[in-house]
Design a protein that fits this description.
Elements (H helix, E strand, L loop, with lengths): L5 H12 L9 E2 L5 E4 L2 E5 L12 H14 L7 H5 L2 H14 L3 E5 L2 H12 L5 E5 L4 H10 L2 E5 L4 H11 L6 E6 L11 H11 L2 E5 L14 H4 L8 E5 L9 E5 L1 H10 L1 H4 L6 H16 L1 H23 L10 E3 L5 E5 L3 H13 L2 E2 L1 E3 L8 E5 L6 H12 L1 H6 L1
Parallel strand pairs: 3-13, 5-6, 5-7, 7-8, 8-9
Antiparallel strand pairs: 1-2, 2-3, 4-10, 9-10, 11-12, 12-15, 14-15
The structure holds pyridoxal-5'-phosphate.
Length: 400
């Protein structure tokens, strides 16, 4: 390999030695509560498809109908030739769901965060960012050129202190946070954040990727859950988790959305969302609203899993010094902290031998290694019992 590229092999070797090296695993066929991974059926606790809509025939049918009507590509950016009636329908439906004046769909949630943050602030401004925010928020903050100040995870006293110390360094100020934290499943203290935003004259961007379809009376998310629907804030989320499709969105006032259509580069200079993805998301959103029983079932499953974990941990079945520790969660994401990357890989692979697919999450995605389980509405009580039985053997798995 030519000398200028030689560093790559060295750097790959470094991440391999730390057990941080990653590679892909191919899922075969439909992804549901059970998936086929390299020929082996596994109960799936690694999916973001919380309501099971990704394999719902109604979404597939809507996508196929859109392809038949409009073709496979939207062929241009939204401001040139890419706009279709389906985009307006989806944006209208999202705005009604979120009870905002307007909404805008992006090609992914990642691009929605990057586009929104870079449109709202620049080098003259300040961003306050929760230390555990998703990569898309953190990268958007860096790309904006604003001064970025991290505050301690969900710590309102620290956010206040950082605002007191730094607010005058920025012309505008934007507070950014996950609503449901994507790795640990805990919730941001949204009412407190909004109060501080009022007091210090800040905008707020809240990432509802794991809240939409899961939390709130109508499934509108963490903002609804906390009764903050009518407060001034900008909500973003993804079409690729509960909604079973692909793409991202921002829901906000008509002015904010109009500004984004004029100033968000990752929306302006990219091809519009495909007709198939748009139609599938629209159907997904209809189902989320029409079938609250899916959300109820999801929460019943979360309850079964958490109650089962309570029993396991209180019985001292998971007790050795190196044993995983529970991470408090208020969502469909449940994490167990594991001492290091090597151990979490080992447990992940043992769980796979037991017929369970779960995420072994390592740095740099998270500060310390953890096992991450996501519940779905389509898991059966047996699936969850099966997982609990496997977790009961975790101590043994580590020692083996
Ligand atoms: C998944 C995720 C995103 C990105 O959404 P995509 O549509 O997959 O690009 C953004 N923020 C959070 C918190 C996420 O979990």
């Amino acid at each position: 390999m030519a000398a200028p590229y030689a560093w790559i092999e060295q750097s790959l070797e470094t991440i391999r030695r730390a057990n941080w090296h990653r590679s892909v695993r191919t899922v075969e066929g439909q992804s549901g509560a059970v998936v086929l991974l390299q020929g082996t059926p596994l109960v799936n606790f690694a999916s973001n498809d919380y309501l099971g809509l990704a394999s719902d025939p109604r979404l597939a049918k809507a996508a196929i109908a859109a392809i038949n009507e409009y073709g496979t590509s939207s062929t241009g950016s939204r401001l040139l030739s890419g706009q279709r009636e389906l985009h307006s329908q989806l944006e209208g439906a999202i705005a009604r769901f979120k009870q905002t004046e307007d909404a805008l769909v992006f090609s992914s949630g990642y691009l929605a965060n990057i586009g929104t943050i870079t449109a709202l602030v620049d080098h003259r401004d300040l961003i306050l960012s929760d230390q555990y925010n998703h990569s898309s928020l953190r990268n958007g903050a860096t790309m904006s050129g604003a001064t970025v100040v991290e505050y301690a995870h969900c710590d309102m006293a620290d956010l206040r202190e950082q605002l007191e110390n730094n607010r005058d360094r920025g012309r505008r100020c934007l507070i950014i946070t996950d609503s449901v934290f994507s790795m640990d499943g805990d919730l941001c203290p949204l009412p407190g954040i909004l109060d501080l935003a009022d007091e210090f004259d800040c905008m707020v961007l809240v990432d509802e990727a794991h809240g939409t379809g899961v939390l709130g009376e109508t499934g509108a998310g963490c903002v609804e859950h906390f009764g903050c629907t009518n407060r001034p804030l900008i909500q973003m989320g993804t079409l690729s988790k509960s909604l079973g499709s692909l793409g991202g969105y921002v829901a906000a006032s008509a002015q904010v959305i109009d500004w984004l259509r004029n100033r968000a580069p990752s929306w302006i200079y990219t091809t519009a969302l495909t007709p198939a993805d748009t139609a599938a998301a629209l159907m997904g959103l209809k189902i989320v609203q029409a079938e609250p029983e899916r959300r109820m079932q999801l929460w019943q499953n979360v309850e079964q899993f958490q109650t089962g974990l309570d029993k396991l941990f209180s019985k001292g079945m998971i007790c050795s010094l190196d044993a995983p520790q529970r991470i408090p969660s208020e969502s469909a994401i449940v994490g167990l902290r594991v001492k290091d990357a090597e151990t979490v890989l080992k447990i992940g692979s043992r769980l796979k031998d037991h017929g369970i697919f779960a995420a072994a999450v390592r740095p740099p995605t998270v500060p310390t290694s953890r096992l991450r389980f996501t519940l779905m509405a389509t898991h059966t009580p047996e699936h969850i019992r099966y997982l609990l039985d496997a977790i009961a053997c975790l101590t043994q798995m580590i020692e083996d």
